[in-house]
Amino acid sequence: MHDIHLEKDVEEDKLGIIDVRAIINDRSIVNIDIQLENENNIIPRSTFYGAKLFSNEKLK
User: Fold this and answer.
1) Strand, helix or coil at 39?
2) Are 5 and 31 in contact, with CB atoms under 8 Å apart?
3) Which residues pair with 4 in a beta bridge?
4) Nearest alpha-carbon partner for 44 in 1, 35, 36
5) Which helix (H) or strand (E) holds 23?
6) φ, ψ at 19 (rounded to 5°)
7) Which pTM value belongs to this model?
8) Are 22 and 29 contacting, i.e. CB atoms less than 8 angstroms apart?
9) Cβ distance 56 to 50 under 8 Å?
10) 6-53 tens-digit pLDDT
11) Phi/psi of residue 22, each to 5°?
């Protein structure tokens, strides 16, 4: 298994690394984010990773 790095739109963007990327039965792509401690940022993290996954898949 290898890290999946999300594409940056500009160099200053945050580097996104997908923990687990899965394709489920209806061919939906999901990100499973693994956190070792609660940083109280699940909504912005989920929004960021979901949007980047969507945009990266649409470009392929």
Assistant:
1) coil
2) no
3) 18
4) 35
5) strand 20-23
6) -75, -55
7) 0.58
8) yes
9) no
10) 767 778 777 777 777 888 898 887 888 888 889 898 899 888 888 877
11) -130, 150
